[in-house]
Amino acid sequence: MTGLAVVESQPFAYRAAVAEEIPVLVSIPHTGTLLPAAVSRDLASEEMRAGAMADWHLDVLYGFLPELGIDVIHAVYHRFVIDLNRPPTATPLYPGRFETTLVPLETFQGDPVYARPPAAEEIARRVALYHAPYHQALRRRLDEKIAKFGHCYLIDAHSVESRPSRLHGALVEDVFLGEMCQRLYMTEGEPHSALGNPKFVDMQHLLRGVFGDLADAVLAGQCVRRL
User: Fold this and answer.
1) Which one, 26, 123, 143, 204, has least CB within 10 Å?
2) Cα torsion angle, 113, 114, 120, 122, sign
3) DSSP code for 172
4) What's the fold here for domain 12-219?
């Protein structure tokens, strides 16, 4: 497999609304793919370096959102660097269930992520460099939107593989049909061909319709249920 890009970059990307701004903010915490060189060296296998567990291409799949007046903040670095969807402390996100940690040490299937796991000091450094700036940006935009509109809807965008895992279990077919799983917009295991996949275009068109309806409801002042 081809490894991910090994570079240093900003800890998040922000895409501002280009149409009339509405009180909706979308966070995509697991679409990042970049790996610092030191992290890449410490990973357990080429499979881990190739982007296992990434929410592939969601930043592109939802690229239409600013045209609907929706701001987007998305991850730049891979979740193996730091998981932006976990508390910065050791507090469990899913008490009593299997979960990956702030810096994941095993995949959803139980495979080791790291050959040399990071020390506590290194994890603290990553929190300061990557986790804190992301959540500060989210908080800042939320506060700005609440100040402007009186409220704001925050939506987290994710995708999952359709195979069973220690987190999701052996889900039945009808359950998966209601989830945003990767097979709906790409061929799983072939992320580098996803953007040319007809499934991708079809799913993006469907999502644009869904978020277009959401934007219309927000602009009309209608009550929007929690997503």
Assistant:
1) 143
2) negative
3) -
4) Aminopeptidase (3.40.630)
